[in-house]
Amino acid sequence: MNPVEIIRNKRNGKILTNKEIDYFVAGFTSGDIPDYQVSAFAMAVYFQGFNSDELYQFTKEMIETGDIVTPSEDMRNYVDKHSTGGVGDKITLIVSPIVAACGLKIPKMSGKGLSFSGGTIDKLESIPGFKVNINRNDFLKQINEIGIGIIGQSDNLAKADKQLYAIRDVTATVESIPLIASSIVSKKIASGSKNIVFDVKVGVGAFMKDIKTGIELANTLVELVKDFGGNSIAIVTNMNAPLGNYVGNSLEIIEVIECLKGNLPKDIEELVYELAGELLIIGGKATDLLQARIMVKEKIDNLEALNKFSDLIKYQSGDSKIINDYNLLPQAKHNIVIKSDNDGYISFINAEQIGMLSLSIGAGRIKKTDEIDYSAGIYLPLKIGDKIKKGDVIGKIFYSKENLKLDNIINIFKSAFEFSINPVDEPTMVLSVIS
C-alpha cells in the first residue's frame, strides 16, 4: 500500500477499497503515516466526500483503534443525545435529568468548548467539587443507581479520531460532513450507544451555517448509525440566536436549575420538549410525542427532574447546595449593564458574535491551554420578536479579567443586535426531523 496513491485516488474522486481505508487509518493511528499526508487525505475527503460504503468502513476502522463497549441486554433502556454545538447550548443538562427521571438510563460522554461553542463539561466544572473523570466501574455503578452520569470524553475510545480531529482543526477541514459523521458516530458506537438523538444545529452560531448542509449531516448521521445496527433520530434546530438568556458556564448552570424548576425560556422549552420527547420514544417509554411531552411536563412540575440533577451533582462529588444557593457558584467581580440605543423590535441577535465575545471576557478558550473564568458570561434578557424602547436593558456582561477594553466590548455586544420598526415573528426552533 502507498499513502500517496491512496491520497491521489481520493483526490481524483475514486472510491477507496476497504483495504486502502484500513491501511490508511491504521497508518496514521500508529504514526507510520505522517501528519502532512493525513492533512492531504482530509482535504481530499473534504472535496470528494465518501460514499456510504467508504464512510461505514472508515468509521468502523476508527472504532477499532480503541476500546469498544459491547451493548448488553441490560443496556436496552440506555439512550444518548448528541449536540453539534452552539452558543448558550445547555440543553443536555436539562434533558438528561428529565429522561432519567422517566426511567431511562443516559450515560453521557461530553466535550469541552470548541471555539465560540460552549462545552457541557466546562459548565459542569463550574460547580464546586464536580468531577468529570470517573473510572468505568464507578461510572456504570452510578448509571445503574441513578440513571444518569456525565463525564469527559475518554482518550481510549476511537483513538484515531482524536489524532484526526487535531489535524482537521488546523487544516480547514472541520466542516467535512463525512469526517464529522465518522467522528461523532465512531465514539458513540465504541461507547455502546445504540439509541441516539442528534441535535444538529444550523445558523450563524453553529458550525453548519445553512439548513441544507444541516439536513445533509442529519441524514448522514442517521444512516450511519443504522449501518451499525443502531436506532437514531436527528433534529435540525435553529442556532442563529443564543439559546436561553445566559451564555457562560456558571450562569448557564443557574439557568439549567431554573429550567428544571419550571422557568423555561420559550426557545429552550421548545427544544427540551422535542429532544426529551424523542429520547423517550426511542427508549421505549412513550409511543408518541404527545405522550412523551406529558411525561416531560410531569417530571418538571413535580421536581423529579430537578432532584435527578441534584443526584448527578452529589454522585460526582459536586456541591448540590448550589440548587438553592447560587452564590456558591463562581461569582464575577464586575458587571456592565448595556442599554438599547433603539426603539422597535429585535429582529436578529448574532449568536456567533455573542459567543466570540464570551471568549474574549474569559468564558471560553481561545487556545486549548487557556484557563476558563467560570464566572464570566453574558445575560441576554430579550429574544427575537421582543419590543424594545431606547434605554431598555438589552444585556449584562459579567467578568473578572482586568484591563478589558470595556468600550470595545459594549460596541461589539450592541452590534450583534438588529432592529425592525415592524413586529417580528419569534423564530421556529425545530427546523426538520430526520428519522
Explain what the structure shows:
The protein is of the alpha/beta class and 435 residues long. It is built from 16 helices and 13 strands. A 4-stranded mixed β-sheet has the order 1-4-5-13, sandwiched between helices. β4, α10 and β5 form a beta-alpha-beta unit. α2 packs across α8. It is globular.
CATH superfamily of the largest domain: Nucleoside phosphorylase/phosphoribosyltransferase catalytic domain
Structural class: alpha/beta
* Tally of individual helices: 16
How many structural domains can be distinguished in the coordinates? 3
Residue ranges: pLDDT <50 for 5 or more in a row? none
User: Which second-level CATH architecture of the largest domain applies?
Assistant: 3-Layer(aba) Sandwich
What can be said about this structure in brief?
The chain has 435 residues and is an alpha/beta fold.
Provide the fold topology.
Blueprint: H1 3-11, H2 18-30, H3 35-48, H4 52-63, E1 80-83, H5 91-101, E2 106-110, H6 120-125, H7 136-146, E3 148-152, H8 159-169, H9 177-190, E4 195-202, H10 211-227, E5 231-238, E6 246-247, H11 249-260, H12 266-282, H13 289-301, H14 304-315, E7 334-339, E8 344-349, H15 351-360, E9 377-379, E10 387-388, E11 393-399, H16 406-415, E12 417-420, E13 430-434
Parallel strand pairs: 1-4, 2-3, 4-5
Antiparallel strand pairs: 5-13, 6-9, 7-11, 8-10, 8-12, 9-11
Helix pairs in contact: 1-3, 2-4, 2-8, 4-9, 5-11, 5-12, 5-14, 9-10, 12-13
